[in-house]
Amino acid sequence: xTSSDERPPNFRRRLFWLAAFIVVLFGxxxxxxxxxxxxxxxxxDSAVAALNGNGIEAGCANLTVSGYPxxxxxxxxxxxxxxxxxxxxxxxxxxxxVAQITQPLSPVADLRGPLRTSxxxxxxxxxxxxxxxxxxxxxxxxxxxxxxxxxxxxxxxDPADDTDPVExxxxxxxxxxxxxxxxxxxxxxxxxxxxxxxxAIGGRVLPxxxxxxxxxxxxxxxxxxxxxxxxRGQAVDIRKLDLSSGTARITVSGxxxxxxxxxVNAELTIKLKDPKAVAAILATAIPEQxxxxxxGFAGLALLGxxxxxxxxxxxxxxxxxxxxxxxIKPVE
Length: 332
Hints:
Layout: H1 3-51, E1 56-60, E2 64-66, E3 71-76, E4 79-83, E5 88-92, E6 95-100, E7 108-111, E8 115-118, E9 125-128, E10 131-137, E11 145-157, E12 167-181, E13 184-196, E14 209-217, H2 220-226, E15 235-245, E16 248-258, E17 264-273, H3 275-285, H4 290-301, E18 308-314, E19 317-320, E20 323-327
Antiparallel strand pairs: 1-4, 2-3, 3-6, 4-5, 5-8, 6-7, 7-10, 8-9, 9-11, 10-11, 11-12, 12-13, 13-14, 14-15, 15-16, 16-17, 17-18, 18-19, 19-20
Helix pairs in contact: 3-4
């Protein structure tokens, strides 16, 4: 028998073992997928059960795990949380988080509105959106990145409350991102076409606003882990906070801190673009101070179209340059 006659059986044998290996590998993968799906569902149910009790009720209705074989998806019809002791309640619509097999540590989640909240000292709120998406880059002990993007965002008082609902705001887009940076936490965010309803601010009128922010919360990782509720002893480094409307723009930068007594300390720089336009907006929003605003900004306009000035706060006492602005009450 020649070697050429032996090749077809050898080839078929290799093909058979390759197919068998693929079948076994796929079986191991399938078993692992369903095992992990069962663990996720059981861990989620255990977490919800651990929250419930002592006046707390939490739920993720109809929790399901799907997406086999190419993705991993966790979904709920709606989510709710209620704490009778603190009189706090919140609920949202459906939740769906999906991680592709090729990127298992980078899930993307969609959340349906509305978000309804009830907190002591505030009217019940109803916040809604056209589209809200969150993405996470998972790591240990904290995610490397958490991002949130929303379109068609709006807020009002809850129409289920006894009073007629009051429109609060709307925004075309809004986005935010958190990143651990050593022991600190970096924040960047922005919004566009923010409109605040005059009824929500005592009849005052503001034009549509755009804004962005870039800041670092000092010791933020420890604060998140301990879930501190006090601003005392905290510090923020503001690289840039920007608020604009048309040609008018206000930019703030510098460090801000709160001491153990709740007194604010800050060394800020305020930059203005088109002071006359800024003055017109403020005079419309605060008509009772129209005269002083126009006079003060007329002086700033002499410094050019983009003047800057220091805003200093020492133990709650604020001054703009050499001009005293008054005292800020201690914060909690």
